[in-house]
Write a structure and sequence with these properties.
- By secondary structure, the protein is an alpha+beta fold.
- It is built from six helices and five strands.
- A five-stranded antiparallel sheet has the order 1-2-3-4-5, with helices on one face.
């Protein structure tokens, strides 16, 4: 799954969160954030996906403004739902526009599809394991070797041909899969799962 952050969307999501708690006070800010998104989408409306997103964002702005005038909880709930749908549509339009080149081939910008390497996960996991841990990078960052100070064994973090992140205990060569992680997860979340996997392996040693 490709990871990408659409311009202006995080700000709109933050405003939407505030709108749920303080609708009267935050409505102008949310409308402003959505307006910036609409302008961004409208400047790209030669693509159908952006034209649809621009329309949805425009409808969200109208809903927020209507709710501000109507001052009824029902209208605010509807405005929140319409705004969230518009933000999601905008984010999907952004991701879709980056996924394909002019010929229609899958062609994301370098560094956007996978924002960190396996070696980055290894170093982050070593940091979580403690000051006595370190991680060396494998060639091209496709592996990481984790080891605690003054120990003669360690752990290799890698990805199998089938795409499974796993830890290999050395020197035995015993493989343990890191469960419940995906390449779309945040670096810190993946590193925490790796660190916990290594802790469990050490308990059994």
């Amino acid at each position: 799954m490709r990871i990408t952050i659409a311009p202006h969307a995080p700000e709109a999501r933050a405003a939407l969160g505030g709108y749920s708690a303080f609708p009267v006070r935050v409505a102008p800010l949310l409308a402003m954030r959505l307006t910036v998104m609409r302008e961004y989408a409208a400047s790209r409306n030669h693509l159908a996906v952006w034209a649809d997103a621009a329309k949805q964002v425009h409808e969200a702005i109208a809903a927020v403004c209507f709710a501000q005038v109507g001052r009824r909880r029902k209208y605010r709930r509807i405005a929140s739902r319409v705004a969230l749908d518009a933000i999601v549509s905008y984010e999907k339009a952004y991701a879709t526009s980056l996924l394909r080149d002019a010929a229609g081939h899958y062609h994301p910008e370098p560094g956007t599809e996978f924002p960190f390497a396996v070696s980055d996960i290894g170093r982050a996991a070593a940091d979580l394991l403690g000051d006595e841990w370190s991680a060396d990078s494998g060639s091209w960052g496709v592996r990481a070797y984790l080891q605690a100070d003054d120990e003669d064994h360690g752990y290799t973090l890698a990805v199998s041909d089938s795409g499974v992140l796993h830890v290999v205990t050395l020197p035995e060569g015993r493989r343990t899969d890191v469960v419940d992680v995906w390449s779309s997860d945040k670096l810190g979340d993946i590193a925490a799962r790796v660190a916990n996997t290594i802790r469990e392996l050490r308990k059994g040693e």
